[in-house]
Specification:
Layout lengths: L6 H10 L8 E4 L5 E7 L4 E7 L2 E8 L2 E3 L3 E3 L3 E3 L3 E10 L7 E15 L6 E9 L2 E8 L7 E7 L2 E4 L4 E4 L1 E2 L11 E4 L8 E2 L3 E5 L3 E8 L7 E6 L2 E6 L10 E4 L2 E2 L2 E7 L2 H6 L2 H4 L15 E4 L19 H14 L3 E4 L1 E2 L2 E2 L26 H10 L3 E7 H4 L3 H11 L3 E5 L6 H16 L3 E4 L15 E4 L17 H4 L40 H10 L4 E4 L3 H4 L5 H6 L6 E8 L3 E8 L2 E8 L4 E6 L8 E8 L10 E8 L4 E6 L4 E8 L1
Parallel strand pairs: 25-33, 26-29, 29-30, 30-31, 31-32
Antiparallel strand pairs: 1-2, 2-3, 3-4, 4-13, 5-6, 5-12, 7-9, 8-9, 9-10, 10-11, 11-23, 11-24, 12-22, 13-21, 14-16, 14-18, 15-17, 18-19, 19-24, 20-21, 27-28, 34-35, 35-36, 36-41, 37-40, 38-39, 38-41
């Protein structure tokens, strides 16, 4: 079933309806496991959340603070709540699942002030089988047309003292990169900004992740602990600390999302975030082609010993384009060389590669049209890197030129903010890029919020500490860091992790190399990352000679970047995970391990009836000394089989199952 109601109709019903007694309003998930309860106190509206009869969120106040007319929270009453049920299917152009069932129960609770102002704000709540979400909606009304929000007073009063997995920051200006902390909620220092998604583990292995969806024309949200209770904390507009959001009515906030399950894999499988976003408005998706790309900045701009001078020129890019053409790699990234961008700028490195007048001009010696034409002849797309301040002042002019050259997409870098202004800049970039048939990869950027449903030309985002740091850190990024990603940052959506380093060494032998960086996890660990991590534009960051003729490269040439179905047969937070992803009739299964060796079992009961040919890659017995060694085996399997996998310390395992 499917219900459609327009905002004007809803407002009409509210205005015409009587004032109901302030009794408890309850809303259950379709399967009855999650219960949302709402009531109004004299001080503020409050809500509770229970899962299978156990309270996860105790009475938690809701409200908003405005610069013009003060707080919205005390002295409220509710008009008649409007309940609906939705059960529909929709397709994703890019995603971890092709077809999504969008099933939820919804209530719209109109809240009205009893004071002279009589402002109305609607609380909208949706409860799914794998979580719930709420947001505030500001309908058009008399005597209130604009607002300046100084704080959103949403609270999350978590029951007991759950273990939290989170990033902690002291300020709002950063690239959302850092080590994850695992500690009891009671030990989180008050006042620190907790980035989202944050994962909470309750006794009895009940999991809840808090994040946001449909972040549009609003400030990014963090969680801050005050008096033991988590509160929303919005990123302020630049240059001051008071104003967080400025908007005209009608308007609405992003969804405040709580993903909930007794099985951690259900949070990873969830499509709540895309379901809470609007469908794409564009009609032609034929040009949107997810895939894999080179990214030679990571390897140090390596080229072979040749007769040409490496640099920002046709020959250097031709070397990588030819590699892509030989190996079915979809895109080559034109970045620059030696720290200088491919376009004219006055900066001294990539971080300062801005353009004063906002017009992109290629550097002397680079013919972008020649590069694009050659790549097209070879069946390879061109992907460029840009500093956001180089393109933003004149988006249309720059993107029209990109389209004329034949560029397919770009990485937009060094955004490092999530205030309302930057949130809107990103959406402007996505909308303008879509008009010119360009895909976008955001770097130095905040988490995804499901907007790839609305703008399927958004392929991936960074927003996490990743293998780029192996170029300059004293210690290489560890498998223990990798394994926390699926349970935290990846709950929000795809991430670019600078994948593809093919020079693994024992941890004791790691050293910093800006050119040809080293890795700590095993070769199979790296292969598994391509299945376990979600990204619609996976990178092969190493140089051609690092791949060709190497064990495991054949798997990287085959593995897709978007999927028809995603399942999590087994996982244990912070220890290991197995993810199975289907493309057509083929399955790809990746298992990722932390630093402790272990044996796990993977049942194949999710397969369709019949036999499959399994191409299996496992770490070799001598992997502790030679972490690039792996064993490839071919065997026949079916849905009755249970595979026993031995995972090395820092290791992994991948397989491709082809229907016979």
């Amino acid at each position: 079933m499917k219900f459609f109601l327009t905002l004007p109709l809803i407002i009409l019903l509210f205005i015409a309806g009587p004032v109901f007694p302030q009794k408890n309003i309850q809303l259950e998930s379709p399967d009855g496991n999650i219960l949302f309860s709402f009531s109004i106190t004299e001080k503020a509206p409050v809500y509770q959340v229970a899962y299978k009869g156990s309270i996860l969120i105790e009475d938690s106040e809701l409200g908003l603070s405005f610069k013009e007319k003060g707080d919205f929270g005390p002295g409220l009453h509710s008009l008649g709540p409007l309940f609906t049920e939705v059960d529909e299917m929709y397709d994703l152009v890019v995603g971890k699942t092709k077809s999504v069932r969008n099933q939820y129960h919804e209530v719209i609770i109109p809240l009205v002030e009893g004071s002279e102002a009589k402002r109305q704000i609607n609380l909208v709540v949706r409860v799914f089988n794998d979580g719930l979400a709420f947001r505030y909606e500001f309908p058009e009304q008399k005597n209130w047309s604009v607002y300046t929000l100084t704080e959103e007073n949403s609270t999350f009063n978590l029951s007991g003292d759950p273990t939290v997995y989170t990033l902690l920051f002291e300020n709002y200006t950063h690239s959302h990169e850092g080590p994850y902390h695992m500690l009891p909620l009671s030990q989180v220092e008050p006042g620190l900004l907790m980035d989202m998604p944050a994962l909470f583990e309750f006794p009895g292995k009940t999991y809840m992740a808090i994040t946001e969806a449909a972040l549009r024309d609003y400030a990014g949200m963090y969680l801050v602990k005050h008096d033991g209770i988590l509160r929303s904390q919005l990123s302020p507009l630049p240059g001051q600390n008071e104003a967080k959001v400025k908007a005209s009515l009608p308007h609405r906030t992003p969804w405040r999302v709580m993903m909930i399950s007794g099985r951690i894999g259900a949070l990873i499988e969830s499509n709540m975030l895309t379901s809470l976003n609007e469908p794409a408005r564009m009609e032609d998706f034929s040009w949107i082609k997810p895939g894999k790309t080179t990214f030679h900045w990571w390897n140090g701009d390596v080229t072979p010993d040749t007769t040409f001078a490496p640099g920002i020129n046709f020959e250097t890019n031709k070397y990588y384009i030819d590699f892509c053409a030989r190996n079915n790699i979809d895109y080559h990234a034109v970045i620059g060389y030696g720290g200088m961008a491919w376009y004219v700028h006055d900066g001294t490195d990539y971080s300062t590669a801005r353009v004063d007048d906002g017009v992109i001009r290629q550097v002397p010696g680079l013919d972008m049209q020649l590069v694009c034409d050659y790549a097209k002849q070879k069946g390879v797309g061109i992907h460029v890197w840009v500093h956001w301040e180089a393109i933003y002042p004149k988006l249309e002019e720059n993107f029209a030129q990109f389209e004329k050259w034949g560029i397919s997409g770009m990485m937009v870098d060094f955004m490092d903010r999530d205030d309302q202004e930057m949130v809107n800049i990103q959406e402007e970039i996505l909308a303008s890029a879509a008009k010119h048939k360009l895909y976008i990869q955001f770097h130095g950027s905040f988490k995804p919020t499901g907007l790839s449903r609305t703008y399927p030309n958004e392929f991936t985002r960074e927003g996490t500490l990743n293998y780029e740091v192996n170029k300059w850190r004293k210690e290489g990024l560890s498998p223990d860091h990798d394994i926390i990603m699926p349970f935290t940052r990846l709950l929000a959506g795809p991430t670019d992790y600078h994948l593809g380093g093919f020079r693994a060494v024992p941890e004791s032998e790691f050293k910093t190399q800006y050119t040809r960086p080293l890795m700590v996890g095993t070769r199979c660990h790296m292969l598994a990352m391509y299945v376990v991590l979600e990204s619609y534009l996976a990178s092969l960051c190493d140089y051609p000679a690092a791949y060709e003729g190497q064990q495991g490269f054949g798997f990287l040439k085959e593995v897709p970047t978007t999927w028809d179905e995603t399942l999590v047969p087994d996982a244990e937070v912070g220890n290991y995970i197995t993810i199975a992803r289907r493309k057509g009739t083929d399955w790809y299964i990746g298992s990722l391990n932390n630093g402790e060796p272990r044996t796990i079992k993977v049942p194949l009961d999710f397969l369709a009836p019949g036999d499959y040919t399994a191409e299996i890659y496992t770490d070799a017995p001598d992997v502790a000394q030679n972490p690039n060694h792996l064993i490839k085996q071919i065997q026949t399997v079916n849905r009755n089989d249970v595979l026993t996998l031995k995972l090395a310390s820092g290791g992994g395992q991948v397989m491709r199952l082809v229907r016979q």
